Amino acid sequence: MTMISSQPLFGPITFVEEKNETEPELDEILVTFTPGENDLLRNLPKKECKCCCCCLVLFLLKKPFPWPVLIDDSKGLYLGLVDILLAYCYDHRTTEGDGSVESPWTICKLSPTLSCLETFTSLREPVIAFLRRALCYPLHRHWGLCQKLLQDVYVILKYGSCPGSPF
Q: Cβ–Cβ contacts within 10 Å for residue 110, how many?
């Protein structure tokens, strides 16, 4: 019977050697921002709310971008935001405000803007497209729920940055 190696396959010395080989140094991971990006991050809204993604999108749409704007159709952009808000409200209602691992899938599946890059020209189009998807794809398919979602989006858009919004 012959031994291949005199060192054990696992021990404190081999563990430290493997750890030092695989992890990069902290100095290599650091990210630096330009002064313009730092200013933009400093000027983000300081309000705490449950729908931070909506507030961030609305904040960025109000401010001039530090880069060239690639979208000429702002109406289509806002109509796409209505579509995404409807999907967000569906997920918020069905998970009772506590998102799950299925939340991104649900939002992307219900939003035609995210799932198939649909663009809209009137407010009626994203609402009908969302209602069709909400009554076909998810687990909870109910017309009353869809009507509540329309009211939820109305409340979000009415209160803006969420000081009095229940979301």
A: 27
d(CA 44, CA 59): 8
Which residue, among 81, 76, 29, 91, has the nearest Cα to 60 in the 3D structure? Answer: 81
CA-to-CA dists, residue 153 to 5, 6, 47, angstroms: 67, 69, 20
- Over residues 5-32, the pLDDT tens digits come to 555 555 555 555 555 555 555 555 566 7
pLDDT per residue over 70-80, tens digit each?
566 678 888 88
148: enclosing H helix or E strand: helix 143-159
